Amino acid sequence: MKIQKGDNVKVLIGKDKGREGEVLAVFPKKERMVVKGLNLFKKHVKPSQNSKGGIIEKERPLHSSKLMLICPSCKKAARVSYQLDKTGTKYRICQKCKAILTNKLTK
């Protein structure tokens, strides 16, 4: 997947359209991601011996097609491509400014 844990993303579709957040978890098989503070829902929890009951807000995973990566160098939502260097290391590249994104991927 082109978006990884720790990346900043922008939501393109849905109730949080236009908002930005950091990716907390990635589920590649389902093509979904949990974004900090976005796509929240409320869950009612009964009290137990360990915790007090109440209403808890949680993040629900978003599909990867609804998110777009924000490039750290140009600060814009951009598409991502891959490039291999001579040693065989795979890098993610911003399509707008052609900058190499921070996370390295190994082949």
Essential attributes:
107 residues, mainly beta, SH3 type barrels, 2 domains, 5-stranded antiparallel β-sheet, 3-stranded antiparallel β-sheet, 10 strands, 0% helix, 48% strand, elongated
| Beta strands, count | 10
CATH class placement of the largest domain: Mainly Beta
What is the CATH architecture annotation of the largest domain? Roll
Q: How would you classify the helix and strand content by structural class?
A: mainly beta
- Shape summary: elongated
The residue fraction in helices comes out at under 10%
Main β-sheet, spatial strand arrangement? 6-3-2-1-7
In angstroms, what is the radius of gyration?
17 Å
Main sheet attributes: strand count, strand direction, barrel closure: 5 strands, antiparallel
Mean pLDDT: 90
Distance between the termini: 14 Å
What's the multimeric state?
Answer: single chain
- Count helical runs: 0
Q: Which topology of the largest domain does CATH recognise?
A: SH3 type barrels
Low-confidence stretches: none
Domain module tally: 2
Our estimate of the beta-strand percent is over 45%
What string, H for helix and E for strand, traces the elements in order?
EEEEEEEEEE
In short:
0% of the residues lie in helices and 48% in strands. The chain is mainly β.
Task: Please explain how this structure is put together.
0% of the residues lie in helices and 48% in strands. The protein has 107 residues and is mainly β. It has 2 domains: 1-45 and 55-70, SH3 type barrels (Roll), CATH 2.30.30.30; 78-107, no CATH class. The strands form 3 sheets. Strands 6-3-2-1-7 form a 5-stranded antiparallel β-sheet, with no helix packed on it. It starts with 7 loop residues before the first strand and ends with a strand.
